[in-house]
Amino acid sequence: MRRDVLRLAVPAFFALVAEPLFLLTDSAIVGHLGTSSLAGLGVASAVLLTVINVFVFLAYGTTAVVARRLGAGDSRGALSAGIDGLWLSVILGVLAAAAVVVWAEPLVGVFGATSEATSEAVTYLRVSALGIPPMLLVLAATGVLRGLQDTRTPLVVSVVGFTANAGLSLLLVHGVGWGIAGAAWGTVIAQSAMALALGWVVLVAAGRLGAPLRLTASGVLRSAVGGVPLVIRTLSLRGVSLVTTWVAAGLGEPQLAAHQVALTYWGALALALDALAIAAQALTGKSLGAGDVAATRALTVLLLRWGVWFGVLLGALTVLLHRVIPLGFSSDEEVRAGLAAALIVVAVGQPVAAVAFVLDGVLIGAGDTRWLAAAQALFLVAYLPMGLAVWFSDASGVTGLVWLWMAFNGFLVVRAGGLYLRARGDTWMVTGA
């Protein structure tokens, strides 16, 4: 079992860490254009990540379905479900991209940032919208491959994509002189290449097993309906992030810029921890598909133990680097001070975050998505008084930012506790394909 976890989690770890490096690279490059550009990137990123994360079920739901069918011995059916997911990602990607282009200004305006930051955010968001269809295709194809117990292929594609993105963004922003739009174009081009590579791998595998490649309305509809609970779960999670960013925008431009980098860094750590959650999704789905409840329980205990220790390690590393990391993102001393303080709070919350992510992965792999949807909505409601308390306290500067991140850690405690209580029972362990 440990070998299976490592076989899936280690490549997933490096692939997942590469993903937020797209935004971290843009943050470092754009940060040297000025504080307004960095703050604008923060607002645009919040909107873009919300749009993308709404459709994360394309990866998570597909992983669970494909893994269950694989565990039940139906490899052709597993890939057939995966192809349905690819078609759904293309349809949703085109619709989402069009919506973001049309409504970029009002979406950005919700955050109440300065006019300079808002202008930069709109520019970045409209260009980045062109990358939404390939981003969603990457999600769906990655989900298929994870369900097939393959995390190495997404790793290779992610590393190549990140390298290309870094070079393109640097060239287009500072070499060609396109400013913040250059960073967006670099990411769009890199994501498009990744989508083509991963999509091709899935299509070849499906063709080899004789799985149908054509678009079928029933298959796409089944994938869409199955993803609704995960959409609700994700919207609730994004609601937490958006409320946090909205409060940060009221603390001042330097604090918003610092918060953007801190949130992006937190996202990088979250995806690192999510490597265990990805292994949990794939292995839980496969073991329950094969009807092995005992293996599922043992897997959950093992992943929890590893997750907590991994969280402690990431937290300690963040504390060691909390004054070094800000140097790479801004020359503004106020931004650096706010970011350094926020990173300490980020570090403290990592072990708790690990528990939440691992158990979330286990329950998604088990297909317990309806419970997750309802629970996450309640977790959001529980967080609102914490986040809004910072807003009404009139706290500002570094102090306000620290209190805001402490409230965010409070949300993690609530979420981890709720998931732990669910995982202790047996209701979620439904066996079979």
What does this structure look like?
- This protein has one domain (2-424).
- Helix content is 85%, strand content 0%.
- It contains 16 helices and no strands.
- It is globular and about 60 Å long.
Mean pLDDT, rounded to whole units? 83
Q: What summary fits the major beta sheet?
A: none
How many strands? Answer: 0
Q: Structural class of the helix and strand makeup? A: mainly alpha
Give helix and strand order, one letter per element, not per position.
Answer: HHHHHHHHHHHHHHHH
The percentage helix is over 70%
List the helices and strands and how they pair.
Elements: H1 2-31, H2 35-54, H3 57-71, H4 75-102, H5 104-109, H6 115-128, H7 132-147, H8 152-175, H9 180-209, H10 217-249, H11 253-289, H12 293-321, H13 333-348, H14 350-365, H15 369-392, H16 397-424
Helix pairs in contact: 1-2, 1-8, 1-9, 1-11, 2-6, 2-10, 2-11, 3-4, 3-7, 3-10, 3-11, 4-7, 4-9, 4-10, 6-9, 7-9, 8-9, 10-15, 10-16, 11-12, 11-13, 11-14, 12-13, 12-14, 13-16, 14-16, 15-16
